[in-house]
Structure to design on (407 residues):
C-alpha cells in the first residue's frame, strides 16, 4: 500500500527533454486491449504532442508522483477560433442579397487524456482536466470540447458527471481500406487541384458558416501535411488548364460539384490492429495476394493493418447539386489512389451524422464508427455574439467541419 507521500500528485507542463519516455510508458500501459479481441494501437512516432502542435495554441500536461517522479497521467489541449453559429448580414445600403455570416468563438479541445491503470480512481484524470481548463480560460477560450468513444463509459462519466460537459454532437467516422489496385475515377468527372489561395477562397465563401469551421483555414491549407484540395466538376465544364479561379467559378457554378481536401496523418502517427486470430490474418493476406496478382479483378483486399500503418484523412467535404454525391465518390477514389501512392493502408473521414453527402463516401462498415461522441462545456460567462446564445444548447446542423489537426 502506498504511503501518503507517494500519493501526492503533481500536475505540470510536459518537458520534452525528460518526459518522452515516461509518457510513452503510460501510453503503452493504457493501450492494453481486451484478450482475443481486435484493438487499435497508436504510435506517436516519438512526438507526444504531434496531434496538437499544428494548432494555433497548445499545451500538454503530465501528472507525476512527487516522491518517485514517475509519470502516471497526461492530457493534451489546444485552442483555436471556429464558427459556432451564423447570422444574417445587416448591410442595408447594398442591393446585394442578404447573406449569412459566420459567428466565431474561441474554442478549446481536449484530447489524449491518459491515466496509468495502477493509479486510477485517485482523481488524477479530474485534476488534469481542471488544470487544462484553467489554461483554456486564461487564454480566452469560451467553450471546451472533446471526442470520445460512445461506449467508453468511464470517459463519458468523467466528463459529463464530474466535469460539467454535455453530450453535443455524434458525427460518423467512415473508413475505407486502400487496396492493392487503383480505383477508377469516373470519366464523367474532371478533378481539379486547387491552389492554396483558391481553396481558401472557396472554403471561406461557401463553408465558413459550417459549424466548427476554423477561422485560420489558411494555416490548415498551407500546412506541410496538407496534400491538396480537389474540386470535382462535370467533364467539359473546366479543365486544370482552363480553371478561372474560385471567384469566377462560384459566380457561375455547374449544377453539381464537390470539393475535398486530404491530410497526411502518416507523418504524424501510425496505427496498428492487434488481437486478430491467425485465421483472420491469413484471410487478409490471401486477399492481398489475389489483388496484387490479378488487379483487373479488383478484389476488395484487406491491407496489412496488423503491422504499423499510416492513413490519409479527408476533410473539408462539401458540394452542391443533385449529383454531388457522385462527385464525392470520384474525389474519394482520387484520395484512395493518393493514399496508395503514399503507402497508406486506409483513408478516413469524419462527417456529421446527417451529412447529405455521406452516401457518396465509400467505406467498410466494420472499420467505421456510426457514432463518435463529442461533448462540450461552456467556460466563459459572455459569448462572442449575444444574439446567438449558448452554443451548447444549439441543435445540430446538416454539416460539420472536422479540423484535420485534431484527428
Amino acid at each position: 500500500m502506498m504511503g501518503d507521500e507517494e500519493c501526492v500528485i503533481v500536475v505540470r507542463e510536459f518537458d520534452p527533454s525528460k518526459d518522452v519516455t515516461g509518457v510513452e510508458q503510460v501510453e503503452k500501459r493504457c493501450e492494453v486491449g481486451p484478450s482475443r479481441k481486435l484493438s487499435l494501437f497508436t504510435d506517436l512516432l516519438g512526438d507526444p504532442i504531434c496531434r496538437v502542435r499544428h494548432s494555433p495554441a497548445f499545451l500538454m500536461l503530465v501528472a507525476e508522483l512527487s516522491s518517485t517522479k514517475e509519470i502516471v497521467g497526461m492530457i493534451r489541449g489546444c485552442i483555436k477560433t471556429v464558427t459556432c453559429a451564423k447570422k444574417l448580414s445587416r448591410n442595408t445600403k447594398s442591393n446585394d442579397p442578404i447573406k449569412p455570416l459566420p459567428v466565431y468563438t474561441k474554442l478549446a479541445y481536449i484530447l489524449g487524456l491518459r491515466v496509468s491503470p495502477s493509479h486510477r480512481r485517485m482523481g488524477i484524470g479530474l485534476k488534469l482536466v481542471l488544470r487544462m481548463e484553467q489554461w483554456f480560460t486564461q487564454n480566452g477560450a469560451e467553450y471546451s470540447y472533446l471526442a470520445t468513444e460512445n461506449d467508453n463509459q468511464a470517459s463519458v462519466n468523467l466528463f459529463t458527471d464530474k466535469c460539467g460537459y454535455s453530450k453535443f454532437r455524434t458525427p460518423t467516422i467512415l473508413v475505407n481500406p486502400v487496396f492493392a489496385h487503383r480505383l477508377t475515377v469516373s470519366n464523367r468527372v474532371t478533378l481539379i487541384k486547387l491552389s492554396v489561395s483558391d481553396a481558401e477562397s472557396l472554403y471561406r465563401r461557401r463553408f465558413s458558416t459550417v459549424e466548427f469551421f476554423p477561422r485560420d483555414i489558411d494555416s490548415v491549407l498551407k500546412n506541410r501535411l496538407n496534400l491538396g484540395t480537389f474540386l470535382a466538376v462535370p467533364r467539359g465544364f473546366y479543365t486544370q488548364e482552363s480553371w478561372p479561379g474560385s471567384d469566377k467559378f462560384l459566380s457561375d457554378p455547374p449544377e453539381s460539384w464537390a470539393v475535398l481536401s486530404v491530410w497526411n496523418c502518416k507523418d504524424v502517427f501510425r496505427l496498428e490492429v492487434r488481437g486478430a486470430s491467425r485465421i483472420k490474418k491469413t484471410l487478409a493476406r490471401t486477399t492481398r495476394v489475389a489483388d496484387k496478382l490479378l488487379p483487373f479483378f479488383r478484389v476488395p483486399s484487406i491491407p496489412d493493418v496488423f503491422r504499423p500503418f499510416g492513413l490519409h484523412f479527408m476533410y473539408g467535404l462539401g458540394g452542391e447539386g443533385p449529383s454531388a454525391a457522385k462527385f464525392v465518390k470520384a474525389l474519394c477514389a482520387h484520395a484512395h489512389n493518393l493514399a496508395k501512392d503514399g503507402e497508406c493502408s486506409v483513408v478516413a473521414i469524419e462527417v456529421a451524422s446527417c451529412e447529405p453527402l455521406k452516401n457518396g463516401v465509400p467505406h467498410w462498415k466494420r472499420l467505421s464508427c456510426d457514432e463518435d461522441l463529442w461533448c462540450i462545456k461552456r467556460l466563459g460567462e459572455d459569448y462572442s455574439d449575444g444574439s446567438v446564445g449558448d452554443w451548447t444548447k444549439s441543435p445540430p446542423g446538416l454539416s460539420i467541419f472536422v479540423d484535420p489537426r485534431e484527428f
